Inverse folding.
């Protein structure tokens, strides 16, 4: 079921991007500012107007915010409970980066005039740690906990990279595309550290 949602989520972002590309002229404000980048990657420095946000930008933010919130909780739990020092250290890094990412995502959501509503509430989607899965993680111990945490953190990082790629390809707001690129680099590096 989750695989179907992966395809559906990525396809929805791609369709939104394609529709937005057809709807806006190539020489419009989004295209003119598409190469503009903020000087400091640690903060969102809006370089475009809120009207330049297309449906892909909005969908990406509405999906990534709750997904990141849920997985920061799991990463914090993993940082406390993992038996493997490498997993514990990586989880600490994922949690810290996730908290910083949340600030940037929330700032960009406000700037873009994107609704803070979570249209994905109750959905069992790849990369989301559901309340049931979090409760299962809380009950697990030792090596079982490590395997469980590794699995769910891996799913989160993998889905984050996929969604960032879709935003980078189909989004129109330069600030959103910049943030997607930043998140992709960070999360791909974290995923590589989890190993095969």
């Amino acid at each position: 079921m989750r695989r179907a949602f992966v395809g559906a989520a990525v396809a929805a972002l791609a369709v939104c991007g394609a529709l937005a590309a057809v709807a806006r002229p190539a020489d419009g404000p989004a295209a003119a500012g598409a190469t503009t980048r903020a000087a400091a990657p640690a903060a969102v420095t809006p370089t475009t107007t809120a009207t330049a946000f297309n449906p892909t930008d909005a969908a990406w933010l509405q999906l990534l915010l709750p997904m990141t919130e849920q997985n920061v909780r799991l990463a914090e739990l993993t940082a406390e409970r993992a038996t493997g020092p490498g997993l514990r250290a990586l989880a600490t890094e994922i949690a810290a980066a996730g908290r910083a990412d949340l600030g940037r995502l929330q700032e960009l959501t406000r700037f873009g005039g994107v609704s803070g509503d979570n249209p994905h509430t109750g959905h069992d989607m790849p990369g989301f740690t559901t309340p049931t899965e979090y409760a299962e993680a809380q009950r697990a111990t030792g090596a079982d906990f490590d395997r469980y945490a590794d699995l769910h953190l891996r799913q989160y990082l993998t889905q984050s990279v996929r969604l960032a790629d879709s935003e980078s390809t189909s989004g129109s707001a330069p600030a959103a595309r910049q943030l997607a690129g930043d998140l992709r680099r960070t999360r791909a590096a974290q995923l590589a550290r989890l190993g095969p």
Remarks:
- Confidence is low (pLDDT under 50) at residues 1-49.
